[in-house]
Amino acid sequence: MRKELKSQIIEDLTARLKENPNFYVSDVAGLNATDTAKLRRQCFKQQIKMLVVKNTLFYKALENSGIADYQQFENVMKGSSAIFFAETPNGPAKLIKAFSAGDGKGKPELKAAYVQECPYIGAENLEVLCNIKSKNELIGDIVTLLQSPAKNVISALQSQSGGKIAGIVKTLSEK
């Protein structure tokens, strides 16, 4: 591969990492063409971008992207690797888990991930990554928690057939 082409690939990967810093690195060695095509179709359906790149080029892109803990990925970047990018931080983890369990071959296997500015090294982190909530899910949980006390007060006031509400309104109108 020519040096110009390598530098172009590194620039493209660096731009992708800056645009979407959540990524997963998985081992895809041993998948045949049919299984790889199935995996790519599932990625497309779930809006996950799957790239197979040279490990050294991806590592250089990590270095250029400004990710603080990129050195932790040096030992992971060996063998055949596929990189998954997605908007939802747990989407690729769920895809990897479902696909590897479905075909019986255990591939793709998680090597590492960088999700919400935290590195996860090793396949043992797959279950943790599957349970990570997205930003929108966390905001929804917070809004629910904030609304809960107000709903409880209103519910308690209404459970007395409106008697307390009428008394409170009358007291407030007199003052």
Largest sheet: 5 strands, antiparallel
| Total number of helices | 7
- The total number of structural domains is 2
Number of strands: 5
Class from secondary-structure proportions: alpha+beta
Question: What's a concise summary of this model?
Answer:
It contains seven helices and five strands; from the N terminus they run αβαβαβαββααα. It is of the alpha+beta class and 175 residues long.
Structure commentary:
By secondary structure, the chain is an alpha+beta fold. It contains 7 helices and 5 strands. The protein folds into 2 domains: about 5-130, Alpha-Beta Plaits (2-Layer Sandwich); about 135-175, no CATH class. Strand 4 and strand 5 (about 120) form a beta hairpin. Helix 1 crosses helix 3 (about 55-65). The termini are far apart.
Give a quick set of tags describing it.
alpha+beta; Alpha-Beta Plaits
What secondary-structure arrangement, pairings included, does this model have?
Blueprint: H1 3-19, E1 23-27, H2 33-45, E2 48-52, H3 55-65, E3 81-86, H4 91-103, E4 109-115, E5 118-121, H5 126-130, H6 135-159, H7 163-174
Antiparallel strand pairs: 1-3, 1-4, 2-3, 4-5
Helix pairs in contact: 1-3, 2-4
